[in-house]
Amino acid sequence: MPFGQRGGPAKGPHPIAIVNAQSRTLAKLVRQMKEGCKKDEEAKESTLCGLNPCLKCLQPDILYHLGLSTDTTDFPKVFGDVRFVCMGGTPGRMENFAYYVMQEIGLKINAATKLRNISEAGQRFSLFKVGPVLCASHGMGCPSISILLHELIKMMYHAKCKDPVFIRIGTSGGIGVEPGTVIITSEAIDGRLNPAHEILVHGVSVQHASQLDESLADEIKMCHDPCKDTYEAVIGRTLCAHDFYEGQSRLDGAFCEYTPEMKKTYLEQLQSQEVKNIEMESLAFAALTSRANIRGAVVCVAILNRLNGDQIKTPHEVLSKWEKRPQELVARYIRKSLYYNENDDDSEQPEDETEGAAAGTGAGAGDTQKAPAAEAE
Ligand code: R2B
Ligand code: URA
User: What is the position in ligand 2's atom list of the atom closest to the CA of 241?
Assistant: First the structure.
């Protein structure tokens, strides 16, 4: 049974068994945080597909923009336990997300220590690791996220990670949605509404399909609680533009060679085609993750409704609150996957609404469940 569903009368594992299984999962996460991934826990090969056959010959492989190299870092030991790779635009947001997700999955570090930016040496992106979760900043636009993804996918390959899930969390301009709404992308499309990421290789146009994992989008959507969450979460198409101004039909850029009527017609056409938002990275994200057979999702909050204007006038404090919404849904998804997913050998999921399942917190299987807590350092 997928984790968002609720069963009938009690017939699943006994609550104590669930608590024990969750405690074992947590103990393993804590040990891996302290000691790294053990040899016998490493997968024999990564589960990624379709990668460059020359990768195995690169000795060392230098992940230049991440400031990491296979000859100075033991990738299987340091990154072999990674199961979730979360990325967002700015270093600060991803550092905050790392601390937030740490709390949500029940891990702690000594109050006197800080999470280290693992890719500081590269001076381009920030990268934080919290147990099985990697948090990276990707900058703005497809070229930037594409460099990051090439290097993170190579990292997963060298670390022999098993079925990692990649998620982009970010902001976007909504199309006909209330500002503050969270949009989970069903499909990324370009400005011509074409579901493909186009790149030029040797001067020739190559198009890669930009589909995203439908079931992952549904699982993340199920982490939204329409009764408790004060905002909506919807699944819809996302237009990925290659700039913020003309590419998104704004009238407030330094240049503008179209009329307000042309903008209105274009945005209304998008709305009629079920496009819910516009951002700048989903095409490259969807294309590169699906080429590697990685399950991927894009979860963005709409910070304005583009049908009502172009400028972002919402106060900073409100924007900060809205930016946390995708983080909240994704952290719930990660927590559920770690502690309540029956498809996973390391975790147990209650098959009913038995209370007291979550490691002695007295919570049930819903979104309000807290993970057990343990200190890693
Ligand atoms: C959303 O916000 C950024 C532009 O302001 C861009 O990275 C995106 O996709
Ligand atoms: N990010 C975008 O790319 N567009 C918007 O309108 C808002 C955020």
Answer: 3
Angle at 240 between CA 239 and CA 246, to 5 degrees: 95
Task: State the number of CA atoms in the 13 A half-sphere of 297 facing the CB.
Answer: 28
Residues in the chain: 377
The CATH topology of domain 45-339 is: Rossmann fold (3.40.50)
∠ CA 331-154-284, nearest 5°, is 65
Residue nearest to atom 8 of ligand 2 (CA): 172
Pairing of strands 204-209, 196-201: antiparallel
Provide the pairing of β-strand 233-240 with 182-189.
parallel
What's the confidence (pLDDT) of residue 98? 98
**Residues in Cβ contact with 96 at an 8 Å cutoff, skipping those fewer than 6 apart:** 327
What is the spatial distance between Cα 235 and Cα 254, in angstroms, rounded to a whole number?
A: 33
CA dist., res. 131 & res. 109, Å (int): 11
Cβ contact 326:297 at 8 Å? no
Domain boundaries of the chain, sorted by first residue = 45-339
Ligand 1 atom at minimum distance from 244 CA? 4
Ligand 1 neighbours (beta carbon < 6 A): 89, 140, 170-172, 244, 279-281
Tokens of 14: 């006994």
Lowest mean pLDDT among 9-13, 71-75, 88-92, 293-297: 9-13
pLDDT > 90: percent of the chain: 77
Q: Out of 47-61, 307-321, 356-370, which region has the weakest mean confidence (pLDDT)?
A: 356-370
**E strands in the chain:** 62-63, 68-69, 84-88, 107-108, 127-130, 133-137, 165-174, 182-189, 196-201, 204-209, 233-240, 275-279, 295-305, 374-375
User: Does residue 109 register a pLDDT over 60?
Assistant: yes
